[in-house]
Design goal:
Length: 168
């Protein structure tokens, strides 16, 4: 039987919150510089809670940190290469092709569902713990991707040329 607790709800809220924040960006709408960091914070909280919820005997913090580092590298590379428009008058930025963040947040939600399904697997199957470790590592990679991407975009925005953004 599935044991639903408050941590499951918090992970789901973090993943859904990251998706909700990134929907505006994926639609090509402009956003403030502060809003750039909202989704990575929600995703990181969800990933950390997934690690905390896993069974202490099967917890692999080294793999979690490795997933976070791999996500940071990939997100930083994406943030460096992504097209960026900055309106200095209104302190806004726009990513014309910013759907990758929404995909990463959606993957985080799917990984959270996979982690929740571990409770449905019979206890005598050996790969239940492996699914839990893989889910927390993938969640850390998603959070790292979003954080690396947001940081590199924020740093690039300081030197980006001014663009008049017609649609807020």
């Amino acid at each position: 039987m599935l044991k639903l607790n408050i941590l499951h709800l918090m992970v789901a809220a973090g993943a859904l919150g990251a998706v909700a924040v990134l929907r505006r960006e994926a639609a090509g709408r402009s956003l403030s510089f502060g809003r750039l960091f909202t989704a990575p914070l929600l995703a990181f909280a969800a990933a950390f809670l997934l690690l905390a919820m896993s069974d202490p005997q099967s917890r692999q913090p080294a793999l979690w940190v490795g997933g976070l580092a791999a996500g940071l590298v990939a997100g930083t590379a994406r943030g460096i290469m992504a097209p960026l428009q900055v309106d200095r008058l209104w302190d806004r930025l726009r990513l014309p092709s910013g759907r990758d963040g929404l995909w990463a947040a959606s993957l985080l939600g799917a990984v959270a569902l996979a982690a929740f399904s571990v409770d449905l697997i019979p206890a005598n199957l050996p790969w239940g713990d492996l699914l839990e470790v893989a889910a927390s590592t993938a969640a850390a990679a998603c959070a790292g991707f979003l954080a690396g991407r947001a940081c590199s975009l924020w740093l690039r925005a300081w030197n980006a040329p001014h663009s008049s953004l017609s649609r807020p």
